[in-house]
Write a structure and sequence with these properties.
The complex is a heterodimer of chains A (297) and B (331).
Chain A lengths: L13 H43 L5 H5 L13 H32 L3 H14 L3 H16 L4 H26 L2 H9 L4 H29 L26 H10 L3 H36 L1
Chain B lengths: L4 H13 L6 H31 L1 H7 L9 E2 L4 E2 L2 H32 L2 H16 L2 H28 L3 H6 L9 H25 L3 H9 L4 H12 L1 H17 L2 H6 L17 H8 L6 H41 L1
Antiparallel strand pairs in B: 1-2
Classes of the chains: A mainly alpha (297), B mainly alpha (331).
């Protein structure tokens, strides 16, 4: 780096002072720009949250949670079926995602130290970067075409695929943090390896795994793209898992791009519900993670 | 790194355990977890094969011309991906340029300037951006961002850049709010948390001795950041940018809502456009015949290939810098 212009000996020339002033000025300006950068980064957050709160709160009526969608002339109704549909699909996806994700994570943490494990880790990372819409295409071919219908099952599988790499890598990382001495203590008592993993290592890592899982659920709960041609959407109640079902993001999408003011208001209220759901999960995850950190101190 | 006592001990435990594998419960459990892990592999490979297989008709019919054809005409069975590729690249480039400056700036602020007490709250605020669902961004984009672009930003850009020969045509045309620019800005906001978080990780991984040495030479804070920290973290920051780009390319719903949905190639950022992900989202459910569906699958295949490639590059870059940093810190 350039050191010309630094003060030399005990005497400072006018030139050196000027250069130093200039460097200080550049420093100030650039530091101010960095402050500006973080400010700009936070503005959209406030803008989006503020907008959804301001526009969504008036729409938070009981009917939103209890009524089916109705024609615009009749006030538009609510999105009760979408909410139940979302809960069903996110619930089912969580079961699938956690079973497979935690299982895979256990393998990577406890048995995985070869080339195969490295490959699986790599593919998990690749999967977490794949566009969610292509996952929708994949599940369309995998389930919708063979079953001859869009379905809640297909939607749930698409969401589960998106959750999978997140849950798996968190499980692996959290289980690796469990001290080796704990495993040794259990093994020394004659406990089989798999029992050691299930009853000693897994519980010790549980809070971290729950945190990661909640964050993964929060991420997929707001997904729209993978549901477009898997769950498809539905104006009515749907009891069967093998028939098209609605979801809150799908309904918000449909209403937001529609032409009616009534629809826009419903979309804003739906967006608020969606954000609240995601934020509650996020806060819960952070709270669990924070509690763990405190207890470690 | 591998010679640390902990790792050696872990290896010893593992070796001692090998003898126990014979029991069926032991084997069964291991096998079950292996199957779960292999499912990830199966999904990724299956996804690739699946999209390739489903696009066979379009590939056979159009070949490489698919990539450079400008018409997309379902009525006359003519399909070309160029307008979508163009729209995807333009919106992603806008996004990555904006997110680069803001994201890396924010990351530098968080690692080197921010008072310790504010560091975590500010970082989690930026990360909160990633928690907002895509469809909510789209809603906000339609009702807040697009009107703002129409009434203020686009006229301003036109006034400033309009008179300049080449830039002028980029910032001209009807000012309608929705379009390529709106798509790019929405994407920039959506990838910002990714770029910021990863840039922060790699910048934080720059050894403190590097900074101290520069300060000891009398460098100002900005000189330390621009000439020591950033060059050191260069490949990692590049990785953050590429990872953000991968996100931007594949992002669907928010862009679909503000891009306008017109497959055209124009020089103006103000005009309506279309992206690969958006056309799949809009037309897939209405595609009525095999070749149409197949063409949409091929678009999906293109998207998958590009994002996978970018992701792999990015992960290698980020992994290289953070891994070496962890090595030195652990010692």
């Amino acid at each position: 780096m350039s050191v010309t212009g630094f003060q030399s000996g005990s005497r400072r020339s006018a030139f050196a002072t000027a250069a130093l002033d200039r460097r200080r000025l550049v420093d100030r300006v650039m530091q101010a720009l960095l402050v500006l950068a973080i400010a700009i980064a936070i503005v959209p957050l406030i803008a989006v949250l503020g907008y959804v709160l301001a526009k969504g709160i008036p729409g938070l009526r009981i009917t939103l949670f209890t009524k089916l969608p109705r024609p615009v002339d009749l006030g538009g109704g609510g999105m009760a079926n979408s909410m139940i549909g979302s809960l069903i699909m996110v619930g089912l996806a969580s079961v699938l995602g956690v079973l497979i994700g935690v299982g895979g994570g256990i393998y990577l943490a406890e048995y995985g130290h070869g080339r195969l494990a490295a490959a699986i880790r790599f593919f998990a990372d690749v999967l977490s970067g794949i566009p969610s819409i292509t996952v929708g295409l994949f599940v369309y071919v995998l389930l919708v075409v063979p079953l001859h219908s869009f379905s809640a099952l297909a939607g749930a599988v698409a969401l589960a695929i998106l959750m999978l790499p997140l849950v798996m890598r968190t499980t692996e990382e959290m289980m690796r943090l469990v001290p080796e001495t704990l495993r040794e203590a259990s093994l020394a008592l004659g406990v089989p390896r798999w029992r050691t993993i299930v009853s000693v290592v897994l519980p010790a890592a549980l809070e971290g795994i729950i945190t990661g899982t909640l964050l993964a659920i929060a991420r997929v709960a707001g997904e729209t793209a993978p549901l477009l041609f898997t769950a498809f959407g539905n104006e009515f109640w749907q009891r069967s898992l093998l028939k098209p079902i609605d979801a809150v993001p799908l309904r918000v999408f449909k209403y937001a791009i529609g032409p009616y003011d009534v629809w826009h208001k419903l979309a804003q209220a739906g967006a608020l519900v969606l954000i609240l759901f995601v934020l509650v999960l996020g806060v819960a995850a952070r709270w669990i993670a924070g509690r763990r950190r405190l207890s470690e101190r | 790194m591998s010679s640390s006592p902990l790792a050696a001990r872990r290896e010893e435990t593992r070796r001692a355990l090998r003898g126990r594998r014979g029991q069926w419960s032991e084997r069964g459990f291991r096998l079950a977890t292996l199957v779960a892990a292999l499912l990830v592999l199966a999904v990724v490979v299956g996804l690739g094969i699946d999209l390739a297989w489903e696009s066979r008709d379009a590939i056979a019919r159009f070949g490489a011309k698919f990539l450079v054809t400008r018409t997309w005409d379902p009525v006359h069975q003519q399909f070309g991906a160029l307008p979508y590729i163009y729209g995807t690249i333009v919106t992603s480039l806008i996004a990555i340029v904006l997110a680069f400056f803001v994201g890396v700036g924010a990351a530098l602020f968080l690692t080197d300037l921010c008072p310790r007490r504010l560091r975590t709250p500010l970082a989690s605020l930026v990360e909160l951006l990633a928690a907002i669902p895509s469809v909510v961004y789209g809603l906000w984009g339609i009702f807040v961002l697009a009107p703002l672009l129409r009434t203020d930003v686009e006229p301003f850009l036109h006034r400033v850049f309009g008179p300049i020969p080449v830039l002028g045509s980029i910032f001209s045309g009807p000012q309608i709010g929705i379009g390529l620019l709106a798509g790019g800005v929405i994407l920039a906001i959506m990838i910002l948390p990714t770029v910021t978080a990863i840039a922060r990780d790699v910048i934080r991984a720059v050894p403190v001795e590097q900074r101290e040495a520069a300060y000891a030479l009398g460098a100002t804070r900005w000189e330390v950041l621009s000439r020591v920290v950033l060059p050191y973290a260069r490949s990692g920051v590049l990785g953050a940018v590429i990872l953000g780009l991968g996100r931007a390319l594949g992002e669907t719903i928010a862009v679909t809502m503000v891009i306008g949905g017109r497959p055209q190639i124009t020089h103006s950022l103000f005009s309506l456009g279309y992206t690969i992900a958006a056309v799949i989202a809009n037309e897939f459910a209405e595609a009525t015949y095999q070749l149409y569906l197949s063409s949409l699958f091929e678009l999906g295949l293109i998207l998958l290939a590009i994002t996978m490639l970018l992701n792999i590059c990015a992960r290698v870059l980020v992994w290289r810098i953070t891994r070496s940093a962890v090595g030195t810190v652990a010692l």
